[in-house]
């Protein structure tokens, strides 16, 4: 396994999209939460050859806290690993007392783009994880899908198919737009709005239901 180093694998052609549940051909990009991915690996589930691992940043003398290091099983399983470390917020003002005060930056997205360029010829697909697989990793996956497909709308559709519960982190998506000259933020607005509406339906939080739940005035 190479940690964020140059690619060495032979070219094997384009990686084809497929079933996100691991049956048949894998999707070009997979998205997981950290524990979800670890469980999949322990059960022998299929994954891509290359991993983008996203966690929280840690201070130099910080204790071992879940989500701040690449789990050993990930290092063992994947051919190459790109590690990114930033908090799941859109602005540093949202960090409160969290240290270090690290949010996603342009250089993080540039590293993802380089990682893609260095590994795409090898085939085998990409796996992306963060802590829950809902915000940071879907944002990076959206960028990877755009790099592969070359179309914002198709990238958004693919992400919705691969990770329906995703609500990509807006800051990361905006950074992809800055670096790639894309319009992924517009697509992301639709993804997030669709997911919020789905959650409203799932939780039955429409206005009429809320009114029905209110106790009658005495």
Keywords:
disordered N terminus, 8 helices, five-stranded parallel sheet, alpha/beta, 218 residues, Protein-Tyrosine Phosphatase, Chain A
Give a brief rundown of this model.
The protein is α/β, with parallel strands linked by helices and 218 residues long.
What features would you describe in this structure?
The chain has 218 residues and is of the alpha/beta class. It has a single domain, classed as Protein-Tyrosine Phosphatase, Chain A, CATH 3.90.190.10. It is 42% helix and 11% strand. Strands 1-4-3-5-2 form a five-stranded parallel sheet. The longest helix is centred in the last third of the chain and has 20 residues. The radius of gyration is 19 Å and the shape is globular. The chain starts with a strand and ends in a 5-residue tail after the last helix.
- Give the class from helix and strand content and strand pairing: alpha/beta
How many DSSP helices? 8
CATH topology group? Protein-Tyrosine Phosphatase, Chain A
Across the major sheet, the strand order is 1-4-3-5-2
What low-confidence regions span 5 or more consecutive residues with pLDDT below 50? 1-24
DSSP, total strands: 5
Roughly what is the average pLDDT, rounded to an integer?
Answer: 84
Question: Separation of termini?
Answer: 68 Å
What is the number of domains?
A: 1
CATH homology group: Protein tyrosine phosphatase superfamily
The major beta sheet can be summarized as: 5 strands, parallel
CATH class: Alpha Beta
Q: How much beta, percentage-wise?
A: 5-15%
Considering DSSP H and I runs of 4 or more, what fraction of the residues is helical? 40-55%
Order of helices and strands: EEHEHEHEHHHHH
Tell me which CATH architecture applies here.
Answer: Alpha-Beta Complex
Give the CA-based shape. globular
Radius of gyration using CA atoms only: 19 Å
